[in-house]
Amino acid sequence: MSTTPLSLGLRQGGLEIKQFLRSRESVVFTLAFPVIMIVIFASIFNWELEGGVRFTQYFVTGMIATGLMTVGFQSLAIQIPIERDRGVLKRLRGTPMPKWVYFAGKVVMVAVIGLAETLLLLAVGTLFYGLKLPETAGKWLTFGWVSVLGITACTLCGVAFSSLARSGRGAPAVVTPVALVLQFTSGVFFVFSNLPSWMQQVAAIFPLKWMCQGLRAVFLPDSFAAQEPAGSFELGRVALVLTAWCVIGLLLCLTTFRWTTRRDG
């Protein structure tokens, strides 16, 4: 029975998903953390923003973007150094398995877990906090391409960022502060236009801000676009910036990824 590249990638993806689900810490932090944050913030900040938009409606969009970033960027930037420390990558490089299969497995895992988390957040927001789902095909299409571009950029950046950690044990200390700072400055926990202008400008460099903005165009009424710093949702710029980060992330992966630890050479 011949083995196709597609079957190899899917098989490796299945293994990655099983390993992910066996790690309670990964499951709780990746899947449960965004839900817990929705419960906390929706219970505390239950007011209306301008235009009759409830803060919960605004906040859930940011948590969906955060969930995609957590699955794509944070989880990989922590998992890969741990696997590198344990010698998993070194052993894989010495097998006949093509190197791309390892990355294909990670992509499959990120896609499946990212989809599951998005559905979970939509279900919680809709059932318990009055989240209004998109009512037009156009908005669902925007939701699709923003999510795909966003999680692709985060995945590639996560693989590239994994080379910065000196050890698997130190990876969370390197990655988690970066993720938290991006969340606080990108309009996840607070209305983005209310943040200091310098903070908005810094956040605009990175993908999460644009993911949040693109998702606001999906879940918030068109009239709310006037509340954005530029006076519109700028979907064209959202697509451009996220695509640019996909390219940047890929180039960084190709030039910085390491199969062995620094002590192994």
TrEMBL record:
Keywords of the record: Antibiotic resistance, Cell membrane, Membrane, Transmembrane, Transmembrane helix, Transport
Membrane-spanning intervals of the chain: 27-47, 59-80, 100-128, 140-161, 173-192, 238-257
Top-rank taxon: Bacteria
GO MF assignments: ABC-type transporter activity
Topological relation to the membrane, as annotated: Multi-pass membrane protein
InterPro entries referenced in this protein's UniProt entry, alphabetically: ABC2_TM, ABC2_TM_bact-type, ABC_2_transport, Nod_factor_ABC_transporter
Family: Belongs to the ABC-2 integral membrane protein family.
Name by which UniProt lists this protein: Transport permease protein
Native source organism of the sequence: Micromonospora pattaloongensis
